[in-house]
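Quick start: read one record
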Amino acid sequence: MMNKNKGQVLVAFILLLPVLFMFMGLIVDVGYLYIEKRHIDNNVKDVLEFGLTHIEQDTNIIKSKIKKQLDLNIDDIKNLDIKVENQIIEVKLEKSKKSIFSVIFSKFEYKISSDYRGYINEEEIVIRKA
């Protein structure tokens, strides 16, 4: 009598295994994207601080130094916009990042963006999301 029910758990497990792998892949992807986003944001904040400490230099020199530093620390930047006006520096950066799901869905990419503005207020550097 018990032999009829023996394989039910195995069949259910095999049917749910792909769903389990998809959730695990999603968790790894989200964690990886969080780390990548923090890396990009920290680099943008660092170059803003550098630019604000050298704000008395020529605008083009500041822009080129910021761009060079970002290119050294961040791979595959898709879009970079640097504005230096009226003692305010604004950096907008976009990047596409492939995921684990790119193996399954060949055109699937996450877009990561960072948009910060920095200025000096009463001799204190202020950096905020734009």
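The beta strands are 77-85, 88-98, 109-121, 124-129.
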